[in-house]
Design brief:
Elements lengths: L2 H48 L4 H6 L7 H5 L5 H13 L6 H21 L11 H41 L5 H6 L1 H24 L2 H13 L5 H10 L1 H12 L5 H4 L5 H8 L14 H13 L1 E4 L7 H12 L6 E6 L4 H11 L4 E3 L5 H11 L1 E6 H4 L12 E5 L10 H11 L4 E4 L8 H11 L1 H6 L2 H6 L1 H8 L3 E2 L3 H4 L6 E8 L3 H12 L3 H5 L10 H15 L3 E6 L2 H12 L8 E5 L5 H13 L4 E6 H4 L10 E4 L6 H11 L8 E8 L3 H19 L10 H4 L3 H18 L2
Helix pairs in contact: 1-5, 1-6, 1-8, 1-9, 4-5, 6-8, 6-9, 6-10, 6-11, 10-11, 13-14, 14-15, 15-16, 27-28
Organism: Streptomyces mangrovisoli
Protein name: Helicase SNF2
InterPro entries: Helicase_ATP-bd, Helicase_C-like, P-loop_NTPase, SNF2-like_sf, SNF2/RAD54-like_C, SNF2_N
Length: about 725
């Protein structure tokens, strides 16, 4: 027993103490969050109980309780009963000890259920001491980042293994210890010492001591000032809420978080490992499941509702594959979000990323092909690159994949060719079906032809349950309301306006000409007398008074031009209006406009064509959304609203849809409602379909003809 043995034990003990210390540091930081959180949950639960009548306690006990005397004594709510306790209830004439005890026990069960159900919302515009204390406590964990979580997990595993080994190896550190250890201890010591050496050396090679040391520094750093913490929360609220969900162990319904997949599919996905060494961001539980789904099922559609972080889930899947020698990935997306994709990959992972776009795209493509990494290109640019041979591409990611729903389109053929040569393909789309179930089936056909063929017309006719069961191996969707309890309120308001005489004249001209698009924007044709523009000004002025940011969407550039004129000449002020964004604005410039809008202090307005600004861009700086006219596709409106009402939004979002009484707007609103029902039945989870696809779906050309003919008949009949 010599110096070498003592040094080996000493190294193991130092590593063991450091591992235990960082676990304790992390637990203290977590306890600080729980301490700040408890009074908030208690208060929210108490408010819930104060709104529940005493009579509900009878239901909770299967009708066994008689509570008439309790109510007559002035105890009106479950909260009153809980506060009173059994002793006070027993003092009520006619209320026995058993009734009092059962009533309080039932009230306590309701209180526990209420605490589990309530969600804490942090109002950055009206902070109060308790929520501010919570943000300050969370700030420590957010600043420490996912590396701290990784360090704590590694430290906990290391400590659990080193502890028993060090106890057995201790006699090897000295002759006297060895003599006193007894025969069994002397026999265990050499093997334990060898195991300590191996475990310590492996941890040192992996950089675990440095990881633990950095995490300790980060976790012991003093708390930020309240102002700094609140500002950081506004910028990174998704990370704060994600940690809050983790610390409070308030996860969403497991079935909803797993997209209500059949048991055998869900079990296979849960068993899929997920390597986080190349990732720079923590995932929520449902996001980790989405990344695992992509890896386990290999060729899939991730159809999460917009705002749930599909991009991050895709990056997590790529980051998992990268350390395994797989290093060439391609992302195909609309031009408007190419810059956003390159930024997200850089920010969320350590993967190399290259935009394959613009005049130098062939040179960039050659660089990417030689050195690997994540290439990001557009649907149009993809057609200029030759599809790879089988096995040359490690994963293909297609963002806004509903762009390739038409199998005959050139971009669809290009994506299909690349997908056919790649073992792993991930389609991302929050709107996998816009008009017909057949469109959704066409996406499945690119990924799994045999599965698409097995989903026949009878499945669609049978309804959504059969349809979703059939496509479960390839399709995962979660909805915001099921997995994001912290999302602020979303308020929709249809702003019905009576057309001015000038508006009516413009509309009549468009109807007589049979020009459907002119009918849709006739309310803006004569801006000086436009009723819709007047209402837009009022909405923007109200937002300005409240310091809120506004995004204004329209399908038409001339409508945006009219809105720009109306807002810049009024009280809103020219300096507050950004854009308009439209398809003619280069992607880099488009992202720059959004960045400037986001960075603006206080009120600002962003004008955007709905096809350009409603896809891919993150606009959660805005808390007011204005839709200048109803859209032919309900998914366009959903996409536009989801640009603002998404993970990271910290304020309630108000959506105003400007509609004209009578005419095309009313007819389109009815059409949107039907199409939304179809989408809900098939692309979302639903127990029973509204009806067969063909019964509620109308192709757009037929719809246009019908609306124009009906409006011509209506106006002609009025003369």
């Amino acid at each position: 027993m010599g110096r070498s043995e003592r040094e080996a034990v000493g190294r193991g003990e130092r590593l063991y103490r450091a591992a235990g210390a960082v676990v304790a540091d992390h637990e203290r930081a977590v306890d600080a969050v729980r301490t700040a959180l408890k009074p908030l949950y208690d208060d929210l639960a108490a408010r819930e109980l104060d709104g529940i009548p005493v009579a509900r306690l009878k239901e909770a006990t299967g009708g066994r309780l008689r509570l008439g005397e309790v109510e007559r004594a002035g105890f009106r709510t479950v909260g009153d009963v809980l506060e009173a306790g059994p002793y006070r209830l027993r003092q009520i004439p006619g209320v026995g000890a058993q009734t009092a005890d059962q009533a309080v026990a039932a009230a306590r069960r309701m209180a526990e259920a209420a605490r589990d159900a309530v969600a804490v919302h942090i109002d950055v515009d009206r902070p109060e001491p308790r929520t501010t204390a919570l943000v300050v406590a969370l700030h420590v964990l957010v600043e420490a980042g996912p590396e701290a979580r990784r360090a704590v997990d590694a430290a906990a595993t290391l400590a659990a293994r080193l502890g028993p080994l060090l106890a057995d190896a201790a006699p090897a550190a000295g002759r006297l210890r060895m003599l006193l250890a007894g025969r069994a201890g002397r026999e265990r010591a050499p093997a334990a010492l060898a195991a300590v050496r191996e475990l310590t050396a492996r941890a040192e090679r992996a950089g675990v001591p440095e990881l633990i040391a950095q995490a300790s520094v980060d976790l012991l750093r003093g708390p930020a000032s309240e102002v700094a913490a609140l500002v950081d929360f506004e910028l990174r609220s998704a990370e704060y809420y994600g940690l809050l969900a983790e610390v409070s162990a308030r996860t969403p319904d497991p079935a909803a978080a797993e997209g209500h997949l059949p048991g055998e599919v869900a079990e296979r996905v849960r068993a899929q490992p997920l390597d986080d060494t190349r990732r720079r961001v923590s995932l929520r539980g449902y996001q980790a499941f989405g990344a695992r789904f992509a890896l386990a099922q290999r060729r899939v559609i991730l159809g999460d509702e917009m705002g749930l972080g599909k991009t991050v889930q895709a990056i997590a899947a790529l980051a998992h594959l990268a350390p395994r020698g797989r290093g060439r990935f391609l992302v195909v997306c609309p031009a408007g979000v190419l810059i956003n994709w390159t930024r997200e990959v850089e920010a969320r992972s350590t993967l190399r990323v290259l935009p394959l776009h613009g005049p130098a795209r062939q040179e960039a493509y050659a660089d990417w092909w030689e050195h690997g990494g994540v290439g990001v290109t557009t649907f149009d640019a993809l057609r200029g690159f030759a599809p790879p041979a089988e096995g040359e591409l490690d994963m293909l990611v297609v963002d806004e994949a509903h762009y390739v729903k038409n199998p005959a389109a050139r971009r669809s053929l290009a994506v299909a060719a690349w997908a056919g040569a790649c073992e792993r393909v991930l389609f991302l789309t929050g709107t996998p079906m816009e008009n017909r179930v057949a469109e959704f089936r066409s996406l499945v056909r690119i990924l799994r032809p045999e599965l698409a063929d097995s989903v026949g017309e009878s499945d669609g006719t049978a309804g959504s349950t059969a349809f979703r069961r059939a496509v479960a191996p390839v399709y995962l969707r979660r909805n915001q309301q099921d997995v994001l309890s912290e999302l602020p309120a979303l308020q929709h308001t249809d702003e019905w306006e009576e057309l001015s005489a000038s508006d009516e004249d413009a509309y009549g001209e468009a109807v007589r000409a049979g020009n459907f698009m002119a009918m849709r924007r006739a309310a803006y044709a004569r801006p000086e007398k436009s009723a819709k523009l007047q209402r837009l000004r009022e909405i923007v002025e109200e937002a300005a008074a409240n310091g809120a940011k506004v995004v204004v969407f329209s399908a038409f550039r001339d409508v945006l031009a009219a809105a720009l004129g109306a807002l810049t000449e009024g009280s809103a002020g020219a300096a507050a209006v950004h854009g308009p964004l439209h398809g003619g604005v280069p992607p880099a410039r488009r992202q720059g406009v959004v960045d400037t809008f986001t960075a603006a202090v206080g009120h600002a307005v962003l004008l955007a064509q709905i096809e350009a600004g409603g896809v891919g861009l993150n606009l959660q700086a805005a808390s007011v959304v204005v839709l200048c006219e109803p859209q032919i596709k309900p998914t366009l409106e959903h996409q536009a609203v989801a640009r603002a009402h998404r993970m990271g939004q910290v304020r309630p979002v108000r959506v105003h849809r400007l509609l004209a009484v009578g005419g095309v707007d009313e007819r389109m609103v009815r059409m949107l409602e039907n199409k939304a029902r179809l989408f809900d039945a098939y692309a979302r989870r639903s127990e029973v379909a509204e009806s067969t696809p063909d019964a509620v779906d109308i192709s757009d050309p037929a719809l246009v003809r019908r609306i124009v003919e009906e409006e011509q008949a209506r106006l002609n009949g009025g003369r």
